[in-house]
Amino acid sequence: MKCDVANENDVTSSVEQIMKIYGRIDVLNNNAGIVIVRSLDEILWDEYQRVVNVNLGGIFLFCKHVIPVMKKQKSGSIVNMGSVSGHVGQIDHSLYGATKGAVIALTRALAWELAPWNIRVNSVSPGSVDTPMLRSDIRIESEKTGKSYEEVKKLREAEQAFKRWANPSEIAESIYFLASDAASFITGTDLLVDCGWVSK
Fold first, then answer.
1. Quick one: how many helices (H) and strands (E) in the chain?
2. Which residues on adjacent β-strands are paired with residue 126?
3. Residue 53: its pLDDT value, please?
């Protein structure tokens, strides 16, 4: 179903529809996110609001409306999408990084807040993943530097320990792990899936 995560009516409608179909919610994966690749002084106020409302507000809204369901069940797993940008500084990603840092902080606080109901809360912080968002970043860098798309892509891949980007399925597997009973003793953790980026 379509849902604008920054629109509370959309979120409540989605949760209601899911409950009608399944009667319970065991896992919430907050995965929606947007980025504006520009220096902070070039970002407009309405752009700022949109990035914050989607990247942080969407998680707030879905958690707000799913948590009561999980509390009644006395169980559940929430997995939020962080980013290496929430751990390290990146040029032209200051606003994006700020929202992802906030997501990681929210995850840690919620883990303790919801522990009495046996609800686990974790986050995943991917590095470079082959997605339309990253490809758009590369195109922007290509236009700014005058280098070809392939040249910039090779440079960015060379920054990874394995000299490649992640496949989206590799991130999905880490989310699946944190959501599953295999991670039953893990809460309040941010799992870096970044090919060693932050450890360098």
1. 7, 4
2. 193
3. 98
Which residues have C-beta within 8 Å of that of residue 24, sequence separation ≥ 6?
Answer: 69, 73
Q: Catalytic: 149? A: no
What's the pTM? 0.92
Look at residue 134 and tell me whether its pLDDT is greater than 90: no
* Residue 111 φ then ψ, to 5°: -55, -45
Which is the catalytic residue, given 22, 48, 96, 149? Answer: 96
| Per-residue model confidence (pLDDT) at position 157 | 87
Decide: residue 105, CB within 10 A, 0-12 exposed, 13-18 middle, 19+ buried: middle
Report the DSSP pairing between strands 76-81 and 27-30.
Answer: parallel
> Do 79 and 29 form a contact (C-beta atoms < 8 A)?
yes
* Beta carbons within 8 Å of 17's beta carbon, 6+ residues apart: 1
Question: How large is the average pLDDT for residues 46-57?
Answer: 98
